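So, read this over?
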Amino acid sequence: MPWGEFKDTAAERRLFQRRVTVMLVLVFLLLSVLVARMYQLQIVEHDIYTTLSDKNRVQVQSVPPPRGLVYDRNQVLLAENRPVFSVTVVPERVGDTGAALEQLVSILDISDEDLERFQRRLREPRRPFQEIPLRYDLTEHEIARLAVHRHELPGVEVEAELVRYYPHSELTAHALGFVGRINRDELQRIDPVNYAGTNYIGKSGVERFYEELLHGKVGYQHVETNARGRTLRVLEHENPVPGEDLKLHLDLRLQERAHELLDGRRGAIVAIEPATGGILALASVPGFDANQFVTGISVADYRELSESKDKPLFNRALRGQYPPGSTLKPMLAIAALDSGAVTRDHTIWDPGHFQINSAGRRWRDWKRGGHGWVDLTYAMAQSCDVYFYEAAIEMGVDTMVDYLARFGFGEDATLDVSGALSGILPSPDWKRGTRNEPWYPGDTVNLGIGQGFMLSTPLQLATATALIANRGEWVEPRLLKDIQGDRSADEFLPSETHEPLKLKNPSDWEFIADSMAEVMHGVRGTARAAGRGAPYRMAGKTGTAQVFSLAEDEEYDAEEVRERLRDHALFVGFAPVKKPQIAVAVIVENGGGGSSTAAPVARALFDAWILEFSAAAGSLISKTDSQSEAP
């Protein structure tokens, strides 16, 4: 059989053609699918994948605004920002966080406290890809060591940031307050957009009250990153708006002098400019270094501060609540005169004690034998307790409470002082509500000399004294003097709410001021030693507050018990009498007598402000004033 009979060439050709056709169709279909998919990816879904690509390549980073600076009234810098280098970790880019931390510990000196703080922040709610600080204030040597291993640590960066710094920290800590890391509670209430990238927030004082002004407005930048998340270049940048710079009424020179005068003693000094209500000095001693709290204080350092018996963290000027003692007598004298309980010439006999009735309890005068016949001027100069016992009974508790409230007691009367307490202005309703007891006549007697349940802060005493210096015109105490820009301080200060204290006889203000001047310059004045030799005339009132005995379970050595059970020494006053430039309140804890301890401190402050620091020191005391007011 011929070979051609076994091979059908035509059939094989047709089969081959069919196979080729099928393959071509298949290839065409596959190409069509590929082209369609490419069309979908590159044309239809172009924007979607471009965005996804940019998210991997381009990051939007927030740029925190520089915090506003704070100056005193003479443009001395009180709070500034300084660059600090810290190592930060972005957990989303690190991968194995535990391994990265172990490697960082081997490279840098990272304490257990740093690690614990990092782990705590890692567990807290936060924004994605937000950097978490691990160590602050790196040295140049540490930065260099970390740079050598940088390629091994994706998501780990050395960041430079501006951190708050207080050049006069211990002097201003209680007045300015301080900033600190934003905690979980603060994270819930702040604006997450405006605080993106911001790690610090005001915790107390001026820093907290004016947080909105000082913080500024956040900026943004679009940056291109590589696969490891490192920034390659900045594509777009929107500058942040810096916080406002603030100028305070505070005078650093007077603040420093107040600390020097209290050095080695526990106490507080508040000085107010009567004309403006500006707080010239707000000192609480001992103080502390506020810079320790900015980036996070160590456990050991905080324990040392918090467990100290001298309580350096306690702001005595704003939160110390003490019996005002005899420093309340000028305010009570105004109340007694205006209510008609006494007159200027009203005289009483002081045998050295006071009794509501002949069979009742005796309240003793500080002078054992009594003062004899006493009028209001003598009672003020000699701080006669019996005179004010009788005046208190004559006025009654309701009248006293009404007038004392108008002096600002029992409330926080300040405009922008963060953290001030309101003290206690006792009344029958207060005693019934807090102690479930009735008000007794003896409570009224005790209130008449600023004892009993009455408690006030040094700031309240200075405020009430400034009201006398202003002859009844209310100017609420404030720290903010000006904003260094186009904005006005009045926009951010709360509205004043106190009405002037108008007396039936306005000349009573001058009478009480002159009576307080007798305390300083009179031959029988309790603080005449402090007022001696002054080229100006000052008004004041000394006071002594009793300290309660120790609890049964408290143990001190004998020396400490004797010192800490002494009376507190107090003084309030203003100067000069006719045109007051400064009003002060001084308390020296366990200082003993107000005339021997607190009054000399106030005199030194008066001299510093009137004779040294004031821009018009040479002309504040005119020849007329010197002659007419000379003691």
Remarks:
- The two ends are 156 Å apart (CA to CA).
